[in-house]
Amino acid sequence: MLSNPAPQTDEDNAKRRQILDGARRVFLDRGFDAASMMDIAKAAGVSKGTLYVYFKDKDDLFDGMVCSECIMQADGVFDFDHNDHDVEAVLLRHGKAFVKAVGNPKRLSSWRTVIAVAERMPEVGRKLYEAGPARGLSSLAAYLQAQTDAGILAVDDCEIAAAQFIETCHATMLKPMLFNFGPPPTQERIDYVVGIAVRTFLRAYRAN
């Protein structure tokens, strides 16, 4: 299931973004099943006929929304400089940025909406996962491998080590946020948890 190619003119690209913004509001507010093309047209401020100029049906429109979310996820949180060997500072900086990014209420709402339909629309779930969690894991693993090659770290399996670090960064925070259980963590809490994650990681993997 692939979205229609974006129109070439600036005006049409702007219209497409306008439609996707409206669709996003409706999908996140009502969920995929309850959302209708008429609801989306009203939220986007366009006619129902205009929707079908850009998207063939609701599935295609939802896919387009997920693609736009994928672009938003590629926001530099896990862009690493392999020549920066101050591993502690790098992990602290990226760990805090990661927790703040995944804790963004709009991003969490998008995840919930996609998870709700992922069983019957697995391609949509795959796209969001590959653009977010999988991309972050791969980028961090590559950085850890570079530091291992430089003799800074001693990591046998960089993918596992990267996953361990990411999981400990959001320990006690992501699941409560995902289930909308209480307020988001304070910056003080994020600093505290990520600090523990970094110290634990370095005790396990810093080269002797």
From TrEMBL:
<feature type="DNA-binding region" description="H-T-H motif">
    <location>
        <begin position="36"/>
        <end position="55"/>
    </location>
</feature>
<dbReference type="Pfam" id="PF14246">
    <property type="entry name" value="TetR_C_7"/>
</dbReference>
<dbReference type="GO" id="GO:0000976">
    <property type="term" value="F:transcription cis-regulatory region binding"/>
</dbReference>
<dbReference type="InterPro" id="IPR050109">
    <property type="entry name" value="HTH-type_TetR-like_transc_reg"/>
</dbReference>
<dbReference type="InterPro" id="IPR039536">
    <property type="entry name" value="TetR_C_Proteobacteria"/>
</dbReference>
<dbReference type="GO" id="GO:0003700">
    <property type="term" value="F:DNA-binding transcription factor activity"/>
</dbReference>
<keyword id="KW-0805">Transcription regulation</keyword>
<dbReference type="InterPro" id="IPR036271">
    <property type="entry name" value="Tet_transcr_reg_TetR-rel_C_sf"/>
</dbReference>
<protein>
    <submittedName>
        <fullName>TetR family transcriptional regulator</fullName>
    </submittedName>
</protein>
<dbReference type="InterPro" id="IPR001647">
    <property type="entry name" value="HTH_TetR"/>
</dbReference>
<feature type="domain" description="HTH tetR-type">
    <location>
        <begin position="13"/>
        <end position="73"/>
    </location>
</feature>
<keyword id="KW-0238">DNA-binding</keyword>
<dbReference type="InterPro" id="IPR009057">
    <property type="entry name" value="Homeodomain-like_sf"/>
</dbReference>
<dbReference type="InterPro" id="IPR023772">
    <property type="entry name" value="DNA-bd_HTH_TetR-type_CS"/>
</dbReference>
<dbReference type="Pfam" id="PF00440">
    <property type="entry name" value="TetR_N"/>
</dbReference>
<keyword id="KW-0804">Transcription</keyword>
